[in-house]
Design a protein that fits this description.
The structure is a homodimer of 344-residue chains. Chain A is globular and about 60 Å long. Chain A is an alpha+beta fold and 344 residues long. Chain A has a six-stranded mixed β-sheet with strand order 8-10-7-11-9-12. Chain A contains eleven helices and twelve strands. In chain A, helix 2 runs parallel beside helix 4, helix 3 runs parallel beside helix 4 and helix 5 packs across helix 6. In chain A, helix 4 links the parallel strand 4 and strand 5. Chains A and B meet through helix 1, strand 2, strand 3, helix 3 and strand 4 of A and helix 1, strand 2, strand 3, helix 3 and strand 4 of B.
Chain lengths: 344, 344
């Protein structure tokens, strides 16, 4: 008996190979619970081996893969609520799936932490899994290590090959649309820099962005190209322009500026809506014939979808030109005042 | 004309959205070159959209996914040659594919850097792509951001479903094998801590581990379970033991200890071989009937494959028991002196 007890103690000591095995248990247990509740069909093997195993998608589908790294001090302020860090780390990745019209399957999580704090980890995992459960996106693998706080998620989804929303599929003459209301997240960053109080609702727009997965799914077969707004509409549209060899005209009076920004000078609000990042709304292009259907999608999702401009032939000049209410291009000087968003 | 020139300058200023767009260009150009040279069949869309797109693997295959994060000061010393950082970041991920018997397909790279240094990035990319090319493993997506140096790679591979090497497939009575020679990487870490000179060959074992992809492929249909040795044989075997509900007996006199460690006291060399991490060799189990075939694989790969023990019924005690030359279990006290590897 004494020998057995010694053996158990010895084994316990061996298992305690640093705190990181325990951290991994927090995540693997939650992942297992979620798999048991939701029984996903493609995940053959999750956490616990050298790698995860996914079954083959259908031959007419594509597997969608995206990765995003969030660093303390770059993507979130030091001292941010760990629930929000967990939530946002997955949200920005899901947003990339949404922009492709993909349905989420799963994700891997790599996490560097300065030390193992139960309070931090439980809150982080709660934020992460609350969103994962909402979208049926399963944690299938990960890595935990010591280091400055850094969260790297790689997310997987599936989409029918013929309906994927790519950046290179915008066509001249199509309408340009954007979801939601723009500028709130950037305003929340700005206020924090000025040490001003940020209303809870506005802080949530920065810390808990809504990945537009449902919208992406509904836009299959309707939108041609799409992307999610992480660095600001003005800069992000240039990516579609470059990939599709087109330009954009944007009517700035049509921009769906976040109502809470109406207290600001119109120019400042417009700058935040055009160049503020972290909104994670979708911008997409579609043939004019789909305008009515897009209106119906907006109603059924309870999400504003606003036609803000159009796709034009690639010009030698700027990929994105802003127009005033009368349809006249704003000056070069006006455009030059737009500052690219640099997170914080 | 003047107007066009102004437009061009304005556009140039807009494109220069921070240094990170340029960094991403370094990687995307190399990725494009490699895709053009090797023409992989499953990668429908690489870098440049919100996400990458992979075509479906065959229905009787599984997609293998693994992620590893390397942090400066935890996984490599400050001031490590950036070529080695790039090389090792991919090597440790490929090693996970090898341990599943998978063939590499591609990877995503997320990189946090304190500042953009051309010299660092070119060397890092050269290390990374030299290994990627060797294994036909294509960079399909990424993220670059400002932050303490951190490299997170997620790697993808494919394996026939019936031949995957999983940790839960070891069976009582099978032989336990290990590839290569053990302990050199841990010795290199130890010497650096002691501010001693590390021979180039030994430093390379730490900085440029060889992912045993070829071995993993040859072990399909021969090995039952496998894993790669990142935290040391003794601790890593416990993972197979737990997953397969078995135990292991290891003959310490059969351990393939790195010859360069023969100058050390036998106990010290044994500790390094048993508990030293970062070797990235494969440990695997196979039916005794395969011993001859495994010998042939060893010869054809020019890689030592050593039978070091056997799979036994799960014992209430330790998952791994070391035996002396006469087959007698070493004492509990002897086992307790084995220290788990904590990288550095």
């Amino acid at each position: 008996l004494a020998r057995d007890r010694n053996r158990r103690e010895y084994e316990k000591a061996l298992i305690k190979m640093g705190e990181f095995a325990l951290i991994e248990r927090i995540f693997s247990q939650r992942a297992a619970q979620m798999r048991q509740a939701q029984k996903p069909d493609l995940i053959d093997l999750g956490i616990g081996d050298d790698a995860a195993l996914l079954a083959a998608i259908a031959a007419d589908e594509q597997l969608v893969v995206s990765t995003d790294m969030l660093v303390e001090g770059t993507h979130f302020f030091v001292g941010t609520d760990p629930f929000a860090i967990g939530y946002k780390s997955l949200a920005v990745n899901l947003s990339d799936l949404a922009a492709m019209g993909a349905a989420p399957l799963g994700f891997t999580l790599a996490l560097a932490l300065p030390q193992a704090s139960d309070r931090f980890l439980e809150a982080f995992a709660s934020g992460l899994f609350s969103l994962a459960q909402q979208h049926g996106c399963h944690l299938i693998g990960g890595d935990t290590t010591r280091g400055p706080l850094n969260v790297c998620i790689t997310v997987f989804g599936r989409v029918p090959r013929a309906q994927v929303l790519r950046r290179d599929a915008a066509r001249v003459g199509q309408d340009l649309w954007v979801s939601g209301q723009l500028g709130a997240a950037a305003r929340a960053v700005q206020l924090q820099y000025q040490n001003q109080i940020v209303e809870a609702a506005m802080l949530a727009r920065l810390q808990k962005p809504q990945a537009r997965i449902d919208l992406g799914l509904r836009l299959r077969g309707i939108a041609s190209s799409a992307l999610d707004l992480s660095d600001g509409l003005f800069g992000d549209l240039a990516h579609i322009a470059r990939a599709s060899h087109v330009s954009f005209e944007v009517f700035i009076d049509l921009l769906p500026i976040e109502p809470a920004l109406q207290q600001l000078a119109p120019d400042k609000a417009c700058q935040l809506a055009l160049c503020g990042g972290d909104d994670y709304e979708l911008a997409f292009t579609a043939d004019a014939a789909f305008a009515h259907k897009i209106g119906q999608i907006s109603l059924s999702l309870g999400l504003p979808l606003t036609r803000i401009g159009r796709v034009t032939a690639a010009s030698a000049g700027a990929p994105v030109t802003c127009l005033d209410a009368t349809g006249v291009p704003l000056s070069r000087r006006w455009h030059q005042k737009l500052k690219p968003y640099e997170h914080f």
